[in-house]
Amino acid sequence: MDVTDVPERRRYEALIDGELAGIAEYRASERIVTFIHTQVMSEFEGKGVASGLIRAALDDVRAHDKKVRAVCPFVKGFLDKHSDEYGDLVA
Questions:
Q1: Which domains does the chain have, with CATH numbers?
Q2: Which of 68, 67, 2 is nearest to 35 (CA)?
Q3: Given this model, what pLDDT does residue 19 score?
Q4: Cα gap 30→23, rounded to integer Å
Q5: pLDDT tens for the chain, residues 1 to 91
Q6: 3-state class of 80 per DSSP?
Q7: Are 81 and 51 in contact (CB under 8 A)?
Q8: Contact, 50 vs 77, CB < 8 A?
Q9: Burial degree of 2 (CB within 10 A; 0-12, 13-18, 19+)
Q10: pLDDT value at position 69?
């Protein structure tokens, strides 16, 4: 799975074999990335796409020295579950 930031669409995209598998939409300010919606395409559900997508997105946010705000319930749950890895990112 390849995950890339597509800033002109304000989302991260997960591609599997070149096919769009999932998205994580966000709003970004200078210091904070607010995740508002995560969606996995039906043919890729149950394959760990959402977790892999969010993990890659959070790693990218960290690499850009920004913080995270989670409006999306999936991202909030992921952050709660992985607070030891990503708790420092929460705004």
A1: 2-89 (3.40.630.30)
A2: 68
A3: 96
A4: 22
A5: 999 999 999 999 999 999 999 999 999 999 999 999 999 999 999 999 999 999 999 999 999 999 999 999 999 999 999 999 999 999 9
A6: helix
A7: no
A8: no
A9: exposed
A10: 98
Would the pTM count as exceeding 0.70? Answer: yes
CA distance 11 to 4: 9
The tokens describing 85, both together, are: 């890895």
- The one-letter code for the residue type at 7 is P
The token pair at 45 is 């559900």
Contact of 22 with 29, CB cutoff 8 Å: no
**Paired tokens of 5:** 């930031």
